[in-house]
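User: I'm preparing a small set of examples for a lab meeting where we compare how different chains pack in three dimensions. I only have the primary sequence for this one, and I'd like the structure in token form so I can line it up with the others. Please keep the answer compact; I'll paste it straight into my notes.
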Amino acid sequence: MDIRTIEVSKIAALIDVAARALDLDFEEDAQNAAQADLDHAYRAWKDARGLARVERDSIEWENMMLATAEVYADLERAKRKARNAKKRLRTAVARYRGWIE
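Assistant: Understood. Below is the structure token output for the 101-residue chain.
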């Protein structure tokens, strides 16, 4: 392998790191938005019933969880995507470090 091939490989690995970092940023923004959506759904559910607070494991809690289950599932999907993006970034960084060490 000549020096030009090595340099191109280093650059390609660095570009992959940058792309993965941007993916992670996007997924973390999506996770934050999903969390805000869930917070809003909880707040709206409580406001519609005139409740300031809902005790965990109460009937109201169960009803709120049922009513917001889809929004909660969206948050869990967003968290999973962010975790996976972080793992892909770590892998890309490790691959790049293999070229520079």
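A couple of notes for your slides: Residues 3-48 form the longest helix (46 residues). Residues 12 and 96 are 9 Å apart (CA to CA).

User: Perfect, thanks.
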